[in-house]
TrEMBL record:
Keyword annotations from UniProtKB, A to Z: Repeat
Phosphoprotein listed as a keyword: no
Protein name: Pentatricopeptide repeat protein
Organism listed in the record: Crotalaria pallida
PANTHER family recorded: EXPRESSED PROTEIN (PTHR47874)
Record-stated family: Belongs to the PPR family. P subfamily.
Length: 424
């Protein structure tokens, strides 16, 4: 434990200079799990937005004073108010704290969540006030409460107080730093791009006897890739696999992003196929990143091979397959290989898939115009009718193209189709 303190103290000294952009905390706390999907129509929120700041607490007293602290829509109100009036959001938090103290609330989770919301507003002073008021009321803090206050400090760029709190936890008998505590620091340094500090906190966590976990690897790998420390990211990924922790989609996407940043198509493709072999989840963003690298290096044949692998391994991942199909069509179109375009489009449609972007459709249309293959273009558009709805930009492209080559009857036909589609 003492070694961990020394390591973190070293980090503290190295990080107190300069601004740090901290913490997109991954935890989601709710006082009341009230949906904010239609926040503009919430009567209480509308009242709070309309009244002056001086009447915020009075309005809350009138509207929701009968609710228990655990029932308060605190998270909803604070996050909804924050964008338009941070001061009103602060006043809501003050009112909640006053109510909790008045009613002698003893639930550590509620104090922890209140402190967390203070961090969301970057109001570390109020977070400290919540913490000290809780103690003064006879409620002893837990590691969870300490962690929330550390998060609030880091989100407010107050690294000195954050490390002071860590040292208090370390010397405590009942509130020792847990693996969440270390992850909070690792996340903060990952987001700020301070890889040295991030690695020091990782070492301190291991020294303290806390094992690896998925969230920690997400922070570590993201921090390394974003700061272009690709070799270190590779080592963490290997360590995660050895630890038998299945990587999240976020980790897989970050690793592929790093390989694409290095323009290493061979390794990127190898990694993608490795993920397929493991039958881990692959998302559309990953497919787009790999397709973009294929395009950049002009390797359509390799895309064809990947498509065959995808169909054999993951025939039901329609979103990913669509991205690869469209990437192949797009490259053939840019090369004006119309025979290959038509084969690729037919193959895609036969599998029940279609274009995902108007830009891809328009690239195909431009290829037909460049090759002056107007009859073949008609067939292409006819094939699309049952599976794809043309956008206004695509219709405009057709009109301008036909006008440019002097085909007025086709211009009239497209304009009529636009009217029928309600786009004229």
């Amino acid at each position: 434990m003492a070694i961990a303190i020394r390591v973190l103290s070293t980090v503290r000294k190295s990080c107190c200079i300069g601004s740090l952009h901290f913490l997109r905390n991954s935890r989601h706390f709710f006082f009341c799990k009230q949906s904010s999907s239609n926040s503009k129509s919430n009567p209480l929120l509308l009242k709070l937005l309309q009244v002056p700041d001086s009447r915020i607490k009075t309005t809350l007293d009138h509207e929701i004073s009968s609710l228990r602290p655990s029932q308060l829509p605190c998270h909803f109100l604070v996050t909804s108010l924050a964008s338009s009036s941070s001061n009103k959001a602060h006043l809501v938090l003050e009112w909640v704290l006053e109510k909790m103290l008045k009613e002698n609330e003893r639930d550590h989770n509620l104090f922890s969540e209140l402190i967390f919301l203070c961090g969301k507003l970057q109001n570390v002073q109020l977070g400290i006030r919540v913490f000290t008021s809780m103690e003064a009321n006879g409620v002893k803090p837990t590691s969870l409460v300490f962690n929330s206050l550390i998060s609030a400090c880091l989100s407010s760029h107050d690294i000195v107080t954050a490390f002071s709190l860590f040292e208090i936890m370390e010397s405590s008998d009942s509130c020792k730093p847990d693996f969440h505590t270390y992850n909070i620091f690792i996340s903060a340094f990952s987001n700020s791009g301070n890889v040295d500090a991030m690695l020091a906190c990782y070492s301190a966590k291991k020294t303290a006897g806390h094992g690896p976990d998925l969230r920690m690897f997400e922070y570590l790998i993201s921090g390394c890739v974003n700061s272009k420390n690709f070799e270190i990211a590779d080592r963490f990924f290997e360590e995660m696999i050895i630890s038998e922790i299945i990587p999240s989609v976020s980790i897989l996407e970050t690793m592929l992003k790093g390989l694409c940043k290095q323009k290493n198509l061979g390794r990127a493709e190898e990694f993608f196929k490795f993920v397929l072999d493991k039958r881990w989840d692959i998302n559309e963003n990953m497919a787009e990143k790999l397709v973009a690298l294929y395009h950049e290096q002009g390797r359509v044949e390799m895309m064809e091979e990947l498509l065959e692998t995808m169909i054999s391994h993951c025939p039901k991942t329609t979103g990913v397959l669509s991205r690869i199909h469209c990437g192949i069509v797009r490259m053939y179109a840019m090369l004006d290989r119309l025979d290959d375009v038509e084969f690729a489009v037919g193959r895609m449609l036969k599998q029940g898939l279609s274009f995902t972007s108007p830009d891809d459709v328009e690239k195909v249309i431009c290829s037909y115009f460049r090759r002056e293959a107007y009859d073949r273009l008609d067939i292409f558009l006819e094939c699309l009718k049952s599976v794809y709805v043309l956008t206004k930009s695509t219709y405009d492209l057709l009109v301008s193209g036909y006008r440019r080559v002097g085909l007025p009857e086709k211009v009239d036909s497209v304009l009529e189709d636009m009217k029928l589609a309600g786009l004229a």
